[in-house]
Amino acid sequence: MSEQQEFNRSVIEEFRANAGRVGGRLEGVDLVLVTHTGARTGRALTTPLGHVVDGDDLVIVAANRGSATHPSWYHNVVANPDVTVEVGSTTYPAKAVVATGDERARLWEKVAALKPFLLDFQKQAGPRAIPLVVLRRA
């Protein structure tokens, strides 16, 4: 298991044991667990992600820490948009929808205002526009 996978596993365990709250370097971060289906493997995978609330929806950001490539979970939700969301102690089915056009522009302004470090990630990502994925309750 990679260091990142081990870190995610420990975050997921702590999240589930504490109704969505975790400590350490993620203390105070608004986290959501997204269970998605692997595009190549078909396996169920759970990824802890930061999010921003937009009305009834949650917005997750495929920043990949400013990498030139999208994160694995992004490819998975594009291929298989039916996901399960865990926020706090609530779990529900959702549809993952990539924001485009005016919706993406509006959401990017909102997300960047709340999480200004994403502006640096966008610069580091070069020509890759960081995708925003809206989680809509099914």
From TrEMBL:
Gene3D superfamilies cross-referenced by the UniProt entry:
Electron Transport, Fmn-binding Protein, Chain A
What reactions does this protein catalyze? oxidized coenzyme F420-(gamma-L-Glu)(n) + a quinol + H(+) = reduced coenzyme F420-(gamma-L-Glu)(n) + a quinone
Give the family, as the similarity comment puts it.
Belongs to the F420H(2)-dependent quinone reductase family.
PANTHER family in the cross-refs: F420H(2)-DEPENDENT QUINONE REDUCTASE RV1261C (PTHR39428)
What is this protein called in UniProt? Nitroreductase family deazaflavin-dependent oxidoreductase
**Organism (species):** Kutzneria chonburiensis
